[in-house]
């Protein structure tokens, strides 16, 4: 071998060693979150913390192969308040059991040291807690530690903020095509309703009362939604949300007497499997493990509360209940289709929310559809 070849080989080897010794520089992008904040984040972060465990509903759409792969910490609300979903996911992805429970990001017991110690690259919070986050100082403290914070929203203004929330997450996780595919599916299913209800006259729209977390506390009634969240879905699906007339904001507490006086045309309660967090709950335990017989029994118990049997909705077979967690996920278009079907059965005779929910699972989620998520008292 010539001296020239030896020299060139040595130079090439040295160059390879140098390149391998230099750490790769992560790509940083700037996004505008749902709070309107411009935030610099590392693209495709591998270690994130969720302000709420139920954000997994959104991550599952983007990280279908393993929604828990990049999650190192969260709040345990998914485990407590939607245990059916947690077990369904954990059976397929056992890593879910290893995620550290950090509690509420807004409590005095929340450990920023733990968040930092987990080598967190991003913290995701809900828009509804923006003020709490600002007051607690968590945003400034984490950003000082080099951990960016972004806000998403599937709860305060779901019809307004679901699409930009998912598009932002798609950019951050380098899953833009996946996000766009779901957004197309979302818009298509929402538009199926808009196209038919926009010409309805007010006199053709039923008045709908939504009982939020119906029966969660057996001896207390009632909470409802105003013009936001599920209340907004009722209005868009061709109804008149009772709470929109009563509350200017997200919702509030209701005296049952006002419901009895107004006698709404349709009543829709929300429920989920809260029996493990609150064993005495009288709620309808919707979820991936729910069954028809117990669902009907619990619906009958709610309709049988003092004074409720005299309501038109109960007498006329328009007493319904639906999965509470639709109120905080990008799947709320399924609830909206169920609402439209209940309010205008003839107008939406061809609409099948069950088929829509099946397609959602088949195309976008890593788990199959099972259990029960809405029902009408028979």
UniProtKB/TrEMBL annotation:
Endpoints of the signal sequence: 1-21
InterPro entries tied to this protein = ABC_Transporter_SBP (IPR050902), ABC_transptr_periplasmic_BD (IPR002491)
Q: Which SUPFAM superfamilies match?
A: Helical backbone' metal receptor
| Entry keyword annotation includes Cell membrane | no
Key words of the record: Signal
Q: Does the keyword Signal apply?
A: yes
Location of the Fe/B12 periplasmic-binding domain: 47-351
Which PANTHER family does the protein's record reference?
MOLYBDATE-BINDING PROTEIN MOLA, VITAMIN B12-BINDING PROTEIN
The protein, known as: ABC transporter substrate-binding protein
What organism does the record attribute this protein to? Maritalea porphyrae
Taxonomic lineage is:
Bacteria, Pseudomonadati, Pseudomonadota, Alphaproteobacteria, Hyphomicrobiales
């Amino acid at each position: 071998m010539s001296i020239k070849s030896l020299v060139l080989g040595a130079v090439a080897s040295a160059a390879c060693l140098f390149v391998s010794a230099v750490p790769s520089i992560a790509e940083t992008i700037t996004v505008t979150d749902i709070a309107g904040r411009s935030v610099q984040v590392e693209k495709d972060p591998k270690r994130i913390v969720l302000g709420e465990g139920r954000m997994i509903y959104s991550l599952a759409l983007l990280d279908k192969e393993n929604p828990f792969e990049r999650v190192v910490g969260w709040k345990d609300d998914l485990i407590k308040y939607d245990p059916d979903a947690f077990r369904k996911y954990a059976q397929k992805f056992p890593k879910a059991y290893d995620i550290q429970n950090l509690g509420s990001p807004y409590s005095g017991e929340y450990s920023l040291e733990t968040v930092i110690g987990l080598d967190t690259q991003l913290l995701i919070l809900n828009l509804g807690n923006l003020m709490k986050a600002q007051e607690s100082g968590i945003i400034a403290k984490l950003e000082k530690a080099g951990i960016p914070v972004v806000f998403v929203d599937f709860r305060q203004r779901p019809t307004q903020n679901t699409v930009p929330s998912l598009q932002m997450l798609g950019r951050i996780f380098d899953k833009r095509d996946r996000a766009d595919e779901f957004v197309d599916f979302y818009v298509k299913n929402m538009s199926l309703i808009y196209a038919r209800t926009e010409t309805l006259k007010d006199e053709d729209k039923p008045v709908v009362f939504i009982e939020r977390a119906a029966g969660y506390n057996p001896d207390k009634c009632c909470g409802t939604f105003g013009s936001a969240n599920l209340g907004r879905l009722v209005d868009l699906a061709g109804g008149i949300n009772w709470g929109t007339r009563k509350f200017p904001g997200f919702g509030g507490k209701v005296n049952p007497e006002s419901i009895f006086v107004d006698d709404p045309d349709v009543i829709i309660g929300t429920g989920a499997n809260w029996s493990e967090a609150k064993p005495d709950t009288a709620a309808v335990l919707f979820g991936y493990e729910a069954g028809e017989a117990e669902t009907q029994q619990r619906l009958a118990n709610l309709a049988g509360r003092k004074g409720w049997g005299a309501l038109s909705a109960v007498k006329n077979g328009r007493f319904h209940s639906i999965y509470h967690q639709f109120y905080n996920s990008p799947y709320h278009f399924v609830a909206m289709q169920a609402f439209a079907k209940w309010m205008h059965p003839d107008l939406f005779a061809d609409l099948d929310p069950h088929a829509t929910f099946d397609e959602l699972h088949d195309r976008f989620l890593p788990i199959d559809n099972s259990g029960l998520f809405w029902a009408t008292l028979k």
